[in-house]
Specification:
This protein is of the alpha/beta class and about 160 residues long. The protein is built from five helices and six strands; from the N terminus they run βαααββαβαββ. Helices cover about 30% and strands about 25% of the residues. The chain is globular.
Length: about 160
Amino acid sequence: MQPIEKKTVSLKEAFQEKEILRKCIYNNRDMIGKLINSKLSNELGSYIAGDEEIRPDLFFTDSESLDKIAVLINYDEPIEEHFKKLLAAACFKDVQKAVWILAHLDKKTRHILNWLNDKAEGRVEFIAIRIIAYELENSMYAFHLCRPKKPEIINNQNLS
């Protein structure tokens, strides 16, 4: 059996609208749970109130620890603008983990997330998950989620 041919594509090309991507990620919540060491229960849609512009895309409870987990998906927004939404999601009542799913994670963004985790002192854990979209040889689309490895040392000299 030969391996399937695949090529990397943009999220917009693979998922014509954010809601399609959100549903795909929701349906694969077990994969996210493994990446963040949580067992995700069903979404707590009724738990979320407030402005649609700043609320999380998905909201779960860890069925073992009962931690509240807010998930934001960066579909095509500028990182700086979406970062504000991540901070707002982390401020929702009782959120213990703020998960940011994005296609590109540069050194500067990693540095900021590390800084946030240091300042949060364990109250909220900020977690980045990278998403890669693929077009398969049969014109079907797929995605892969991975948690980037922590860089050994990040300092201001490495941010350029």
